[in-house]
Amino acid sequence: MTLNISGVALRRTTPIWIATVLATVIASAVVAVTPNRADALATPVPLGTATSFAVLAGAAVTNTGPSVVTGDLGVHPGTSISGFPPGRVIGTQHSADNVAQQAKTDLVAAFNNAAGQATDGALPPDAGGLRLVPGVYTASSTLGLTAPSPWTRRVIPTRYGSSRWARV
To answer: Is the confidence at residue 149, as pLDDT, over 90?
Structure first.
């Protein structure tokens, strides 16, 4: 003889299904509202037209080796760009043209923006190879970048001769 009660299986699976959905919704909500370190850092520094530049100088750009610059390279108001080749630019070179002038103006605005923000963290004397989220960082001495670094393309000093740097 077989006992056949059809409602028992349904009553057991319904609470388990509801509990699973409820736990998933609650876990998702907790993850969505929990602040992370990147949320707590500085306000992003807008680079404007300087965003496409990997190297942007005022007087001159000089390269002495087989460097590869990924992004635009520019100088304004100076005109001197030397060392390419042996260096290689994967982007456009701008020497005292309107593009370099506007990028330089936008870089000064970004510099002033970053300089006005509070420091988010301290850097070791050699920050090469570190992966940092955008923010304003300090270094207790001269900042070295001796290892390949994924963020060197987007770093600007916030004061000349200073040890405050912005990763943007």
So the answer is: no
Residue 47 confidence (pLDDT) above 70 = yes
Q: Which two tokens stand for residue 138?
A: 């300090």
**77 prior amide bond cis, ω within 30:** yes
- For the ranges 60-64, 69-73, 94-98, 138-142, the maximum mean pLDDT occurs at 94-98
Query: Which amino acid belongs to residue 134?
Result: P
Using the CB atoms, write b or e for 8-46: b if 16+ within 10 Å: eeeeeeeeeeeeeeeeeeeeeeeeeeeeeeeeebbeebe
Q: What is the mean pLDDT of residues 128-143?
A: 76
CA dist., res. 83 & res. 96, Å (int)? 17
Q: How many CB atoms lie within 10 A of CB 136?
A: 23
